[in-house]
Records
---
Amino acid sequence: MPTSRSTRIVLYVYGVLVIAFLYIPLVSVGFASVSKARYLTFPIKRYSTKWYGEALGSSTVSELLTTSMTVAVLVTVISVVVAFFGALAFARYHWRFRTTFQKLILLPIFFPQTVLGLALLMWFNSLGIIPTWKTAVVAHLVWIAPIATLIVAIRAYSFDPALEEAARDMGAGTFTILREITLPLLMPGLVSAGLFAFLLSWGNFPLSLFTTGADSTLPEWLYAKMVSGYSPLVPTLGVMSVVGSFVLIIAAFAVARLLRANKETSAVQD
Amino acid sequence: MNRLDGRLGFLSALPLVLVLLLSFLAPMAVVALFSVMPQKVFSIANMPDFSAYSLFFSQGYYKSLLWSLGMALTATIILLLICWPLAYAMAKVFGRFGLVLTVAVVMSLFVSENIRLFGWVLTLMKGGLIEGHLRAWTGLSFESPLYDVPIIIFGLVYVYLPFMLFPLAQGIAMVPDDTRQAAYDLGASRSQVLWQIEVPLAAPGIVVGSLLTFVLAAGALAESKILGGQAVIAIADDIETAFTFGQNWPLGSALSMILIVIIGGLALFGVSKVDLDAIMGRKR
Amino acid sequence: MGSPGLLRLRGVVKRFGSFTAVRDIDLDIVEGEFFTIVGPSGSGKSTLIRLLVGMDEVTEGEIWLRDKRIDKTPANLRPTCMVFQSLALFPHMTVGQNIEFPLKLRKEPQDKRRARAEELLDLLRLPRSYYDKRISQCSGGERQRVALARALAFDPEILFFDEPLSALDYRLRKTLEKELKDLHARTGKTFVYITHSLEEAMVMSDRIAIMKEGRFEQIAVADEIYSAPVSRFVAEFMGEVNLFPLSAGADGRIASDALSVRPGMRLSQLTPGSGGLLMVRPEYVRLAGDADGFDFSLKGIVHGEYALGSRIQYEIETVNGMVTVEKLREDRLTATEGQTLVLGFNAENTHFIGEAA
């Protein structure tokens, strides 16, 4: 029984409403960021970009951004490397403890991040390590490395193991196969895993909360201001963070498109 | 299973296992050890006792746990109902729009949940986006729904929607169209198809989605803090307080352990019920 | 084929846990032949070819290539190459890059690689302009040829084929079967092919091995497998067949519950006191009004008629169960369903399968 026309329309409308539901709060934050008043009320009477100017000039803000960026970049690099091999163990190779390994990877994703963060705090304490942004990198990895692995694993599932066997049959060793066959074929998965890793780390707050010590990431600072003492910079920095993420995603899509187009033309000319 | 595969599998699992050993399993062991330490110590070199666990009952922490679990359960049920038609449409009805929806939902995930919840505060507060405009245009006003239990559940539903939607859509996509058509062909009604064909065949997606949302919602902190004020205390909030203001690590650890056992048990149960190879890729 | 075995298997066994996939196989493959292993799924043929290529290790036994024992040599160090069922063409490389891949691994200089690739494109009758095409731009048949070119590139001693045609449609398959046979003749290479399709095997092969439950039932030239199978399994695997139980008394006289036997009729393979199955293919069974002039005959009632294109098949109910008979279209029967007929055939068109088989 095909879905009737009216049902389809209802479903489309429903889909649009859900998207609206997801983005309404961001609209509010967006408006709030350009309100001139120190204490915000809607409707906004006077618009101004002065909070943006203040944010850009503030040394606290640039410190927050530097910390968040450093953490996110490190988390991304480590996650992608770990996920490349992890995904092969997850999806490609048949080995003895594969199902146990698959379950181990899923567990941290299911755990409340606040608890993970606190557990890490105690662990660092018992090792005598004073938390800084470096420990936050470790904390982010608990949650982000498994997710990156799952993303690459989806890609690894979809490729034919005969490709590697064929390469071996023609004389390639394990390392050559990884470099010439596996890596290029998993590349799209690695790129999206990297993107996810960066963005999830950039936006993460519960794992950072207890593990950054004296350092602070952007989401942490925002949370602190939200629960105790409002700052008009909160919506401004929120918007900047969101815009930053979206610009990155769009840039990544554009680069991917460009590369694909390039490859196709070069394949024809060459 | 050939020997080369066995070796390569083991070697390539190693980096991730090491990361998880150092950042997940070891810390969990430390939590377990701390939870049996006497009150207010900051080292595990003490005689174990179980005083922290007795506080769970004597000081009413169990109420927070029940609140957290109850709100998580409610949010999970609401999400199942909200997401089912949408997941169905994503898997079977929407073509390109399904992709648009997926991208939109995934992008929202990249925005820190603080910012999104704070956005709801700005939207719903007195003088916020909705009430402020309503009063300005019509003169009508309403009390802010913030700082109460329903708004916390609303926040949970909002934040964890993607975690229900995607597994559910994946589960429904696993129901072959043929079986549905065959059932109609054999004379089944719409609801019979739903309950006897779609729900059982999409069960892995339903299980994963429900577990994920329940477990994450049960351990959630930001929703009750940002949207709920202090209307009710979530267990994660108690845990945080025990560690920070309370400076009582053994108490925080004991509360964490109780939450971990419940969540870990559910997660392990769910994960053992589903075949990951079948959900994520082809069956080999 | 007097030359010694190029590839020799001695007592090859492969076990997976408690399951034995390949049981004690001995085999000699002659240089330059087209050897096909046929078997139903689960017969162990895929396992066997993976052992031959080096993608799995033998549990017991030895594999020799010329005068070198290779069963412990990994796939990448064996001078053989396989064409996979999925073809396993690298989607991120062009046609040329695919063909040159094994040469690149052997550090051949670029101009030599290019020359070899073009030579192979010519050999497989692909235009040289395909060198820069992407795999996704090639049709099913073209991909097949690219896979063959790639497998031939480093001039392997033996080419193995793991059912590469099974995913193609009927017409393309037929064309490629003939091309493959032609390629075998032009290159003079040794081809070892596995398939579940006997038809495919018959068209292409010099010799065929029939595999069942990890063992070879029979190894012979195609015609012999069809006309003189050694067992009921081979006979039935090779298409439609009629089998009649027979036995011989102490005096050598043939006795059968189903068949009327011409008086004085003897079968050389049927020794006195033994028994077995008499096989006759459907195209050798004649339909007549009476039993005159036939070595063997029986009565039957026409049950059904099926058009097979150039031939017509009849199912005829007898005391021996259904007997299948085939006629050319032009010899179509006038008999209708329910009519009683005599079925007859002669000894020279039969084959006897002894009791033990």
Note: Chain B has 14 helices and no strands.
---
Amino acid sequence: MSDARSQVLGAIRAALGGGDRAEARRTAAERIAAHARNIIPARTNRPAGELANLFASMATEVAATVERVVDLDGVPDAVAAYLASLNLPAEARVAPDVAGLPWDRRPTLTITAGPARDGDAVSVTGAFAAVAETGTLMLTSGPGHPTTLNFLPDTHIVVLPRSRIVATYEDGWDRLRAEGAVPRTVNFVTGPSRTGDIEQTIQLGAHGPRRLHILLVEGA
Amino acid sequence: MESTAHRFPENARRALTDENLQYMLRKSATGFQLRRRMAADRLPEFEDLRDQGRDIKNHTLAHLDVYLEAFEAKVNEAGGHVHWCPTAADARNTILRLCQAAGAKTVTKGKSMIAEEIGINDHLEAAGLVPIETDLGEYIIQLRKEPPSHIIAPAFHVRKEQVAEAFRAAHTDLPPDRPLDEPRELITEARLMLRRRFQEADVGITGANFLIAETGATVIVTNEGNGDLTQTLPRVHVVIASIDKVVPTQEDAATLLRLLARSATGQEFSAYTTFSAGPRRAEDADGPAEFHVVLLDNGRSKLLGTEFQEVLRCIRCGACMNHCPVYGAVGGHAYGWVYPGPIGSVIDPALIGIEKAGHLPNASTFCGRCEAVCPVRIPLPKMMRHWREKEFDAGLGSPAVRRGLGVWGWFVRRPRLYHAAARLAVRVLRRFGAPGPLAAGWTAHRDLPRPEGRTFQELWAERNRRSGRGEA
């Protein structure tokens, strides 16, 4: 095992012509520590207040649906109304990080919290951040947000506080670095699941959700 | 995968008469090109991003050993394991050992070209395991028992009627009279069948588009979400990646990701881009308990420091094949090994030898479109020319071509004689046309128009005389 390691690294070093590896190591360590930004598209260069509009229009372009909600207390009503509008059963599996919302306002809505199980049709989760540049959600795994909720149910509803919308992926990473531990998984989600594998015709809902509904919470 | 690259001419001839393949090539030829164009035009920084993508990869390759060490240290820190594999056989055996240690029966797989390169499915099957491809395109070709024909659209060559046929043959517990005429019906059925497999799998294998030295994360980019179910539901997640996939930071990955989807499918961003570092944390409610990265060299380190080093910049977007007139005429299978199209014409000889893959760098008109669209500006035509030189130097290639090049070489080293012969040839051709049977190898597939005037050298000399510069 360690033989294989030195074999691969030795072959690379020999091919690169030897050279001072201590110097190379310093260069690499400095680049990693600096994690400098490269070119950032000017598209995101707009007042913070307009980022939500950019996010919503980019997300809509990739077949996500975006609904504005006044505040977090309005989320249960919005979820119930959305499910009713699609004739879906009034049941949802929710992430622990949104389990504390006032779900009891809609007693007919059955809510259970935890990771997705086979057969769960609808999930509701929060979002760590959202990237306006391409209408992309940034979802991080953790006790408050099991990853399976992002992929197993047919319909994924995301509660996105407006304050979590950032301009670029880089802004999202900075926010994650600032908030501490690196989670096992960071899912960047841009629209519902899709495939073009049958005659290059785009179809939604290949393995992941067929519907991605984003509740953009203005007052949060 | 057994290579048939040495039979490229026969493969290509067969492809040209394969009606299903030709239907699919006609149907999809312009879609990828148009979508890439639109995505690139919409991002004013696109060309500058390509320069930066090239520079990021060049920097990383020049420090490849130290970035791999940094990546490994971070994987270990997150509780994962890195397995270094000099050869394809090492990688196959490592993965089998990991599956056996997990007591695995069913193994789900996300799409991975490295997995094709090392032939992992056959290896696992031979040991009694059941590998299941979960990318829809890969699933289709696994049922049809054939290799992928495109690096991002593995079932690019398959018509929907052929998909239905494969599904009816494989999914025998479903009602035989069910309708399977529309893509929607096919996708719903695949989703249903694969859901069962996701639930029963013990190990999930994915590839990696990038490895991040900064965090020890592996990155997969998909549209279906199959890669995420593959790596989240089983107890063990195995990532198989080649050494050229590492990049320094998350910022560097962000830049390359801005190039990847736009170059590949013309999307602004793929539906799912997932960064995974280590196994589930103690407090997590889901995710794999084990995380392994199988790191494959398989001949890549030998390309460093050579005229082929730049090919290691490749981010596997498929733009070169989407824009290649040769790929567009014969499809991917004709190339005969894992990587088709222009990128394959450069990588395949490096990985399986020029003696086996010599036809591939010759299967190019040098039109330059591959280089013009490559997101990291790999000079593919130049590298194909290097392979042609190596082929010639090694005494390979067809005797007729070698003789022809020998004759041509003899003439061009004698400019006066060459000019005289060219003048004569042009006049003969103008008068009589191409000498039928003598040039049949060329004219059977191409037009040789009758020259209309004098040789280029004559015209050039006259032009210079007129402008008073004298003969060059």
Note: Chain B has 23 helices and ten strands.
---
Amino acid sequence: MSAIPLSHILILASILFSIGFVGVISRKNTLFILMSLEVMLNAVGVAFIGAGSAWHQADGQVMFILILTLAAAEVAVGLALLIQMQRRFKSLDIDLLSKLKG
Amino acid sequence: MSITLVMSSLFFGGALAWYIEGVKAQSARWIALLTVIIVGFYFVISITTAGLDFSSLQTLVRLSWISSFNIEYALAVDYLSLVLVLLTLFLAVICVLVSWQEIQTKTGFYYFNLLAAIAGIIGVFTAVDMFLFFFFWEVMLLPMTALIAIWGHENRHFAAIKFFIFTQVSSLLMLVAIIAMATIHFQQRGQVSFFYQDWLTLNLPLSTSLYLMLGFFIAFAVKLPSVPVHSWLPDAHTQAPTAGSVLLAGVLLKTGAYGLIRFVLHLFPQASMEFAPIAATLGVVSILYGAKMAFAQQDFKRLVAYSSISHMGFVMLALFSFNAIAYQGAVLTLVAHGLSSAALFALAGMVYSRIHSRDLGHMGGFWQTAPRMGGFALAFAAAAFGLPGLANFVAEFFSLVGAYQRFPLLTILAAFGLVGSAIYGMVLFQSAFQGKEANRGESSKVDDLSKRELLVFSSLLALLILIGFYPNIVLMFFQDTGQTLVLTNTAGGQ
Amino acid sequence: MTNSLPETVLALLPFYPLISFLLLIGFGKRLSWHMAAILSVGSMALSAISSFVVINQLSVQSPILTVHLWNWFELGLEGSLTAKINISFYLDGLSAVMISVVSGIGLLIHIFAAAYMKEDENFTRFMAYMNLFIVAMLILVLADNLVLLYLGWEGVGLCSFLLIGFWYQEKANVLAARKAFIVTRVGDTAMAIGLFMLFKELGQFNINALTENANMLWTVGDDAPYWIALLLLGGAVGKSAQLPLQTWLPDAMAGPTPVSALIHAATMVTAGVYLIARMNGIFLLAPEVMNYVAWLGATTLLLAGIAALAQNDIKRVLAYSTMSQIGYMMLSLGAGAFSAGVFHLMTHAFFKALLFLTAGAIILALHHQQNLFKMGGLLKRLPFETALFAIGLVCLMALPGSSGFFSKEAIIAQLWSSNTAGPMLWYCAIFGALLTSIYSCRLFFLAFMGEKRFDHELQPSSSKLLKLSLIALAVLSLIGGIFANTIELSLSAVFPSIEPLNLDEPHWLHSVAIAAPFVGILFSWFYFSNYRGSNKENYQDNPSALVLFCRLGLGFDRLYDLLLVKPYCYLARLNKNDLFDQLIMLNAWYVGICHDVLKSSQTGKLRWYAAAIGLATLLLLLTLNIESFSLEAS
């Protein structure tokens, strides 16, 4: 089996992560931000799996499962907040949530 | 005798007043008054029957508190603490009496804070474990800040914060010095100790003791206050409720002087000798600057506040001249100024309750309708500018005669404070009580003193005159201590 | 300790007026005029009787009477020694003269005041202050130590303040009172510094012990007595309204007239003279200072005489004349003629009290008109007052036979060949006598001669009390000269006799001195002839610039205003907000600025925060990378 070099995987993960990050900071819609966050989490997950297979250790896959669980929980909370936000502000614009400014 | 009992009954008396407020609002002040009177009597009786010689420190309690650091609950008194505690308890009665009508909101909590502050002050005057001293130093600060912040005048939050920050920052320096001293004790004796009498026996190199002394000195100079760290005082005084001002001027400033005597001069005799010219100069600057600033004020209470700075300058000058006469003068100034400035602030409160202004420009011609008040005002202003026959004259005279022995030139400069004090005293008295009655609309008629106010003023004036003509009732306790202090210091200095 | 009867009398002497003061203040307006008058005058009478009782006890065998009341305080010295400061009274020839003047004249003025102030709504308060003043003044002159003297000294200053500002609703009176208090306070401060210096040098405040120690420790011309005497002189100059602290006295005339008579003519202003006479032991050790005293006195007497020439207010003329007469006393003290100075103090108290009180009676009759140019022609309309005033003026001018003559001639006679004065000062004194008679004549012509220049009907007081006290004072002024020998005798025990220089005195000295006032009268008879005339045009008061300058006290007020008052007020205004506070509040300002900057970074926008976190992580990674690269490279 010809192994995919670790560097390729990491580059893929970084690209995915950057795409996610750019999505988080450039999108106003909270739904898209959540989706971008998912992309970022999955980018991290890819990196973990790549690293795990490169070193032949199961830790990477364990971590990925953990991330999946975390992502599911996060999406649940995030979507709940999203619904609340839609109710209160009639909008999903994240910039409206700026009550905490000094 | 038990100082602990005095402090705790003040504290619990205050707590009871706080509780009673919810049941019957008018009872709170009676509870407070009864508490301070009973505690005062208890204190007087117990010291007269104690049978101890208070010319040196007499340890009353010594219990282990935080044993891992060898911190103790230790209280001790000598004549200096006794006189100051007596002054505190006397002014406590005055404080309750002047608050009688003034405080209408949250009365119970008010008296709780007042009595807690007084308990803290008594703790400061009697604690001999330095950690405990620092603890009480903070205990008296918090309720005082609350008094200013909750029941003060229009700008109270600003004043309370300023007061708090000034004292807090300076006391942190003292905390550092206290910890350093404990560490030095550890290095020299193999165990940590915060006990004052242990520290007296430490051997400190001059350079170290100079730094440590500065730590204490700055904390006490802020409290005294001395120029240039005085500026919390005018704001705090002006904004505090009447009893707050009385307490501040009457006893809180005295904790600074007490600290200078007890800790700076006794713990670091050599360093304070070295430092004396600077401290004395600061004292003289305070005298003149305070007098000049007092003249410039339009606000009754601000004027009195600056006059306090001027008077405390005499204490600083006298203490750092290392002379038995000057030392007695300093102690007597503490008592005399405690009474006279308390009286002036009480007067300010009474004027404020009548015309709802502290602005001298809105006053004038009160004598027409309030001759009694005018007479007392004149007497207290005369006390402030050192009229012979009142306590302040003897105090200033002792301070200056003593200080002249060591700092002739500085004392001559300080003597011009007598002119300055005459100027502000006259301005204060004349613009409030003489001249034409200012047009104040419907409230133009100023009522004369009520019976309660008469009681406050006549007791203060009686004490001022008594001490003025027979100062030995205070001074007899300090003839020996003054001598020993001078001896230890001059010995240390050589 | 049991006191003999004279000692008890002496001990109680100052306290009768104190009791009266306390009662008057305590009961206030509830007392009727009769009650208050009886109380205050009665207490004064008790003091006066006591004074004469104790003075009669003094004799050549026992020239001193002391009484110890209680120990005030003790000042610790080296070792276990202490300097006891007692409340003790000391009566010798000098204080005997002073208490007889204070209580005697005080009694007469109290009687006058009871009638004069009858209509005032604050009559009790007035009499209370007058009583308090007498208490302080008696303590001042009876004190056996300088601290107790200082108590009286400040006490009379306070009473003077209260009485000048008695009609406190007038702004001008309030300011005059303030000025008097503060200007004298400057002198008092000098005196206080003198006391500190004395104590450092001698460790004593008791006057007799001081004099003894000083004579043992110091020789004539030492530095210490020089400075001490100079500083004490500062106090004396302030209280006695001499140059350069004289400006308060003319303004002090704002007070009721009995006050001007009692405090600002007869008693308090002579306290400075008393102080120097009392401390003669120190002053004699500092001949330079004695010389300054003489020159100060001479300058004051001339300048005050010139200023008196230009006044238009009858009380101000008398005020300047008081300054000038005290100048004579100072001159006499400076020349070493202590007993002559003290004698002049006494006669001056008689005739100046008479002049002020008569002026008061005239002012009352004229409905509070004090302007000389609005008087005139009183000779026919108020003959009784005119006669009394004339007696006073005769004494003031020191015409032969009057009390003023004996005392003033005694001073002038000793000037020429004194150690510390000299011919120059003699000429000053003679010129001063000339000026005195000229301004006296001007005053007399303007007020009493010529045509009537007032509109109201005259309302002369018919009070018997008023007249009684005036007549008593007039008699004293006329026959005061007979006390000359008694005084000389009793003072000879107090003052050391000083050998005069052996100068050849020109034989014409005495004749010139006697003639000087007559020359003045003659001069004014012609020079002020228009003031005697009936032409009303002559009485227009349109002063030239020079006259105005003199009338305003020769510019001293303006000078002090410019040099001291304005800068002090300016400085006070400039620094009203407290420079140190501003500096400290700078910290708060700085913290506030930082707070604002940081606050603006906190937008509350989630995406910005995320971007910042990302950027920061990137930077962190980069820097870590650079470091690891550089580590590898090395």
Note: Chain B is about 75% helix and 5% strand.
